Amino acid sequence: MADTMRAIDIKNGKGDADSLFVAEVPKPKPKDTEALVKIKAFGLNRMDLLQREGNYPVPPQAPRILGVEFSGIIESFGKTPESGFNIDDEVFGLAYGGAYAEYIAVSTHMLIHKPKELSWEQAAGIPETWITATQAMYLVGEFAAGKSILWHAGASSVSIAGIQLSKADHASEIYVTAGSQEKIDFCVKELGATAGFNYHTQDWSKEIEKATTGKGVDVIIDFIGQNYFQGNLDAAARDGRIVNLGVMSGTKLPAGVDIGAFVRKRLRFEGSSLRSRDEDYQGKLRNTLVDHALPRFKDGSFKVFVEKVFPFEKIVDAHKLMESNKTKGKIICAVY
User: Fold this and answer.
1) 283-317 tens-digit pLDDT
2) Sign of the Cα pseudo-torsion (140, 34, 118, 100, in order)
3) Rounded CA gap, 124 and 13, in Å?
4) Which phi and psi angles does 161 have, rounded to 5°?
5) Percent of the chain, pLDDT > 70?
6) Are 44 and 20 in contact (CB under 8 A)?
7) Residue 231 to residues 50, 199, 203, 286, 292: CA-CA distances in angstroms?
8) For residues 186 and 112, what is the distance between their CA atoms, to the nearest angstrom?
9) What is the model's pLDDT at position 274?
10) What single DSSP character describes residue 7?
C-alpha cells in the first residue's frame, strides 16, 4: 500500500485560487478513535476561501490541507474506533480539515453511514452545512415551532439547509435575503420560504418590518456582519436572537450604529463557529443530524442541492465559481 496520496496544496502557503495545485503528500495514518477513509467526494465551503487566503483562524488540530466535509469508504481504523463502523462501510462526515485529498484520517465520532438513496456527491454536501444550520437554529438561536426566522444569503448551502429545517419544524414565517430575483424565487418556490428580499434593490430590514406588521422576526441567522448589523437590530422581534456565523462585509461597525434595540427589544446577539468546537460537541450535533434529518434525506423530503461537480483536479475552477457568488447550493469535487 502506497505511503503517499494526492491532495490539494497551496503555493507558498496562501494565495488566490490559482495558487491551488495537486501535490503528492504523505498518506495519513489513523490514530486511536480515527478511521482512514478513501475519499470519493468533498464539499467546498466559504471558510475554505478564507483559509486559502490566510484569513481564517484554523484550529490547532487541523491539518494543513483544506476541506472539512467528505464522503468515502472506510479503509482502516485506529486502536479504539467507535462501535458500529466496519471496513468497507460507505460513510460521510465532518473533519477539522484534510478533506481536499484522496484519503483522510478522521474521528469515527464524526462519521455517518451513507444511505443508498444519496450519491457520493450529495452526501459530501451535507455535514458542514446541515450541522452548521442545526447548531445555529436550535442550540444558539433557540428556534422552536411557531417562531419566525430570517436566513441571510438565502441561496447559500447553510441557508438552503436551514430553510428546509425551518419548514419541517413549523416556523410561522421563513424570510430570506439574496442578491438576485432568481435566488429569491428558488428560496420561495423551490424551498418554501415565505418571502425574500433583494439586498441590492430593497431595504430588506424595512421590508421585513412591513411584512411582519412591525413585529419583526424571532431568529436571524447572519453571515454578513458589519453591513447587516443595524438592519438585524431593526428587523429583530422582541426577545429575538441574532446568530452571527460570518463577517463577509467586515468586522468594524460604522459610526452612528444605534444599539438601543438590545435593551428596548431585549435582544441577544451571539456568534458561533462549528469548526472550533471540540469533538464531543460536534459528535452531539452529528447525532442530532442522524436522528432528525437522516430519515428525511432517505425519504426525499430533505434535498441536497448541488450546483456543480468538478473533478478533483479542477479545484481552481471550483474555487473561482464559489468566489463568483452566483451559485445556489453546494459545489462538490469528485475524487476519481
Assistant:
1) 888 998 998 899 999 999 999 999 999 999 999 99
2) positive
3) 25
4) -65, -45
5) 100
6) no
7) 25, 11, 9, 32, 32
8) 29
9) 85
10) E
Sign of the C-alpha dihedral, residues 208, 212, 213, 218?
negative
Q: Which long-range contacts (CB under 8 A, 24 or more apart) does 19-24 make?
A: 19/52, 20/52, 20/315, 20/316, 20/319, 22/312, 22/313, 22/315
166-183: b or e for each residue (b if 16 or more CB lie within 10 Å)? bbebebebbbbbbbbeeb
Listed as own residue / partner, the contacts of 306-309 with beta carbons closer than 8 Å and 24 or more positions apart are 306/121, 306/122, 306/125, 306/330, 306/331, 306/332, 307/331, 308/332, 309/41, 309/121, 309/333, 309/334
Summarised one tens digit per residue, pLDDT across range 243-270 is 999 988 989 998 999 999 999 999 999 9
Confidence of residue 273 (pLDDT cuts 50, 70, 90): confident
Residue of higher predicted confidence among 285 and 195: 195
Is beta strand 149-151 parallel, antiparallel or unpaired with respect to 174-178? parallel
Question: Which residues, in sequence order, are CB contacts of 55 under 8 Å at separation 6+?
Answer: none
* 71 closest CA partner among 92, 85, 98: 92
Amino acid at position 137, single letter: M
**Nearby residues of 147 by Cβ (< 8 Å), 6 or more positions away:** 171, 172, 218, 219
pLDDT at 91: 98
d(CA 244, CA 191): 22
Q: Which three cell numbers stand for residue 74?
A: 472506510
